[in-house]
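tool_call: predict_structure(chain=1)
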Amino acid sequence: MAETTEVERPLSPHLQIYRPQLTSITSILTRITGNALIVAAVLIVWWLLAAATSDSYFATADAVLTSWFGDLVLTLSLWAMWYHYLAGLRHLYFDAGKGLDIETAERLGWGCIIGSVVLTVITLLLV
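tool_result:
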């Protein structure tokens, strides 16, 4: 049998080595907000099913969704919806082959973040 020798090779780079970039953070945030919107949808469906079930069950679900925790979850869900929408528009722009240089991609990333906060505040003020 042939003798094997262990070769000293560098490990693959990990997150500790690289400085976080705005483009990677916005990509990860798009995935997180998409999954968070699923959780929010499940809560809203639970609330609607409770309304169709009984008054006492609806009172429980309504108490959860109208509490400070429910208000926080629904407000963050509103922000996530706006962010996810704007990030989707940004990806459509990328799919057209435009805005792929780093400077434009970073400007669009900041646009998604700032735009989603502004649109969330406007929505909360109107509702």
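agent: The mean pLDDT is 91. Proceeding to next step.
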